[in-house]
Design goal:
Shape: globular
Number of domains: 1
CATH architecture: 3-Layer(aba) Sandwich
Strand content: 25-35%
Bound molecules: coenzyme A
Largest sheet: 8 strands, mixed
Mean pLDDT: 91
Distance between the termini: 32 Å
Structural class: alpha+beta
Low-confidence stretches: none
């Protein structure tokens, strides 16, 4: 029974109290409180890809998400009443965690959903890795503001890391110490 409960918890990160308060005091909870972060499945991919194409000029295609599944990376969606509002993916290897992608549907941004996913990512990585790394385009001021607010520090620049309209764009490398 305990094993089954752990399995269920791994699939769905869910706070039952929040749903109770949402019913009794609907104004007391926000969408951020009500979303569930759960493991991404193949069935989520059409919704994930729609957001991916909406948000990025050079989006990941389906095969990259499937490679992430096959590699055993952590792949989650942010689910609100069975709708995918966002997603995030993280790899983990010998003490290093790497945030590979985090994205929120354009019309659902600025409600704290990315912050909630990042908190979940950090909580998962804590105890398994010493550092959480990520790359971000210098032009992505919103994402940089989010990462700095969550305690990430700049540790370097990767030259020509991203494809760009004309040539390549550098990446800022950020890191968060988890210990
Ligand atoms: C970056 C992104 C994931 C943020 O998602 P979000 O759900 O809107 O972010 P949140 O609402 O959780 O914001 C948390 C904090 O991030 C910062 N932030 C987020 N978007 C911002 C923006 N456009 N401008 C300035 N700061 C921003 C703020 O500090 C915000 O805190 P506040 O609301 O208390 O001011 C979202 O804009 C997105 O999906 N962008 C396209 C994909 C992308 O660029 N991903 C990152 C790749 S490295």
């Amino acid at each position: 029974m305990r094993g089954l409960m752990d399995k269920i918890k791994k699939i769905v990160v869910y706070d039952a109290d929040t749903e109770f308060y949402a019913k009794v005091f609907p104004d007391s909870v926000t969408k951020k409180d009500l979303v569930r972060i759960r493991t991404m499945t193949h069935a989520d991919l059409p919704y994930v890809l729609t957001i991916e194409h909406e948000n990025y000029e050079f989006p990941w295609e389906k095969d990259i998400f499937i490679d992430c599944f096959n590699a055993g990376y952590y792949c989650w969606v942010c689910d609100y009443e069975d709708q995918v509002l966002g997603y995030c993916l993280m790899s983990m290897a010998v003490g290093e965690a790497h945030l590979l992608n985090i994205s929120v549907a354009a019309k659902e941004q600025k409600q704290g959903l990315a912050r909630k996913m990042l908190e979940h990512i950090i909580a998962t990585a804590q105890g398994k890795a010493e550092t959480l790394f990520l790359e971000v385009r210098p032009s992505n001021v919103g994402a940089i503001a989010l990462y700095e607010d969550m305690g990430f520090n700049e540790i370097g620049i990767r030259k020509g890391y991203y494809p760009a309209k004309y040539g390549r764009e550098d990446a800022i490398m950020l890191a968060l110490e988890l210990l």
